[in-house]
Design a protein that fits this description.
The chain has helices at residues 60-74, 79-84, 95-106, 111-124, 130-137, 142-155, 157-160, 185-190, 193-211, and strands spanning 2-5, 10-14, 17-25, 31-38, 163-170, 173-181, 216-221, 226-231. By secondary structure, it is an alpha+beta fold. It has a five-stranded antiparallel β-sheet with strand order 1-5-6-8-7. Residues 1-38 have low confidence and may be disordered.
């Protein structure tokens, strides 16, 4: 049972960015505010309303990660599709091209095969023995869950957009190991339930839970495109997860099957 509370991190919008401010007190009582600036370009400093695509100002850090992930995934794209495109330089990738690579990867693969591609990509970015070392450094404790939640906010904003640490309740205990993603950039740009589940939610959950030994449950909200990440919460079996019966975004997904009550990409 997971209970979410959105009271721990304050968002203060500024021009052409969003500032995540985390305040803490020192032993002397002095208040310290640390700010993480995310490259969001909406005048309001918030993600665009549902139905509109949020604008971002991606910098060097963001484009480097987009390029790294896109190039790793391109190895699993259909050879015919890859051969038709001119090879991109390191800074020719943007978020749209990153999502396009993801779309090409799911072609001709079932749900489990898509998830395996993401697992292979994630493992390829780590040095040998990294998962075992992670298990030693971050055993499945409250401290480890809270630390990983805090790290998610700055290091995943290029992928999912602005987020904030929130308090959650796991097995009756409250801890700051939840992350609330206001409007997932990946879901917003792909417009695909199957890609959200098979290329992000399930493989990320499995990677942290099985490879790193730190349970993680991701709870996407397909009505407003927000998402909750709960470190320390063991994910349910896929067949018991609410996403198992999620229909397509029939009006915005280019590969949706409007005649199906459940997204076809969620079938094994």
């Amino acid at each position: 049972m997971v209970v979410l509370s959105f009271q721990t991190v304050q968002l203060t919008p500024t021009v052409n960015c969003i500032s995540l401010q985390r305040r803490r007190s020192t032993s002397s009582g002095r208040r310290i505010c640390s700010t993480i600036r995310c490259g969001i370009a909406e005048p309001s400093g918030e993600p665009a309303p549902l139905g509109q695509k949020t604008k971002y100002n991606d910098g060097f850090f963001e484009k480097a990660f987009m390029t790294l992930f896109a190039r790793k995934m391109e190895k699993y794209a259909p050879k015919a599709a890859a051969g038709k495109k001119k090879e991109k330089g390191w800074f020719d990738y943007d978020y749209e091209s990153f999502v396009d690579v993801s779309k090409s990867v799911i072609q001709g693969r079932n749900r489990l095969q898509q998830q395996e591609v993401v697992r292979e990509v994630l493992l390829s970015m780590l040095p040998p023995g990294a998962p075992a070392q992670f298990r030693k450094l971050f055993p499945p404790t409250k401290w480890a869950a809270e630390l990983n939640a805090a790290l998610t906010v700055p290091f995943f904003h290029w992928l999912v957009g602005p987020s904030e640490v929130v308090e959650v309740e796991i097995d009756g205990l409250k801890q700051r190991s939840g992350v609330h993603i206001k409007k997932c950039r990946y879901l917003e740009n792909s417009g695909c339930v199957g890609m959200c589940v098979n290329m992000c939610k399930i493989p990320t959950q499995d990677f942290f839970t099985n490879e790193f030994g730190l349970p993680l449950t991701m709870i996407p909200n397909f009505e407003d495109m927000s998402c909750e990440m709960v470190y320390g919460q063991v994910p349910p079996p896929f067949e018991e997860d609410p996403v198992f019966k999620q229909p397509c975004y029939a009006s915005i997904c280019s590969i949706a099957n409007p005649n199906s009550s459940v997204c076809s990409k969620l079938q094994a």
